[in-house]
Amino acid sequence: MLIKFLTLSTAAIALLTLWMAYTQQSAFVLRQENQDQHWSRSNIRTSGSYVGGRWQYSSRETYAGFRGGGPGTGK
Amino acid sequence: MIADYSSQPTGPQPTGPQPTGRFISRWAYVSLGLVGLMSLALLSVPFWQRLLLTESLSVSEGDSVELPTIALPLTRWGALRVEAMASLPWGQSATYEIQIRDRTGQVIGSAVKDAWAETGQWAEEGESGTWDETDVAAGLDLRSKQAETLTLAIAVLDHTNTAGLDLNKPIRFTVQVYSGAIDDRYLWAGLIGTLCTTLLAFGAVPTSGRRAISKTMRRAHEVTERGDLKGGDRLLRLTVQVKAPPHAPSVFTLSLTIHNADGESIFSDRVSLATKYSKHEGKTTGAGVRYTGFFMLASPGSYGFSAAIAPEDPILKTTLTVYEDAHTLIPVPVRSLS
Hints:
heterodimer; A: alpha+beta; two-stranded antiparallel sheet; 1 helix; about 30% helix; B: mainly beta; six-stranded mixed β-sheet; 3 helices; about 15% helix; about 55% strand; elongated
């Protein structure tokens, strides 16, 4: 009974991860507002979001390295 | 025909039953097969992937450079993978963006990467050397709910040295775009997960079944117990475990008897068991013997089991357990009793 349960768990894990991997549930979906399933690769982050079907940049000032468009602008 | 009279064995030979695989746990092996399936799924990932383009480009701060237009068809499997790599000299950092533009040039998605490449010296306990570390690669997997014609672009938002000074030199990028990219991170998670549950399933097989008898006697060399068993096409696993002090002899003899409901002996055997000594930091701390036997009973009823161990002097405790409906991992010899 325990072995059966463990095997069914194995099957559930296998099916779920195969489906997630092969259908690319973690990819960024173009023109879709809900990106909850997006799992970014190599420390990249999306710099905007869809508002009413259009891509809206998040504020540029929130970038860590951003210094306001070059020396001397004084932002 | 000349008869060969040399070295003929005399007396009855102890011939046990042939091992049978009919009680092997199929479930445990199905689980193992699923681990194999996950391994195959991981190995097949590169075969789905097709390189669509490789581009080298230079981008300056505040600028963006477009790549050739690519078609993103509507597919159920895989995604479009963009892999960008910035060639940053040591001591520089850059924030760059991967932009996705549609056929009208409208940005329909973007993602940024804070890239850096640093090097320095370390000194510790009289030793010293240099270290270097980089984080310059960016990856983005794209999927679409409709067929799209896309143009990717790389934009450099910020480029400075470690002192924080802006650099107005272009950065070289290598960008590769693949179709049919599979997210192997889920497959690795799946492989580890299925491996864990499979190990647990294999670990559960030696204690599988319904416990019919479990009796422990302290400072006794003999355990006798009776239990109700269903018999029939079920495997019975009988184990005898003996614990002894460290000075125990190297061999014990186990006398095993099984009686039916009428008290008649239906099985009787004597086996020699080699003692296993447990050691801790080079010192023998204990000793024990273990016996496992497999049986099948023809009919349901009450059966009596008796295990006696000799020599009886140094025994700390004796445990007799009987499981019915047991399973095995490998073929085992099974005695049919009637």
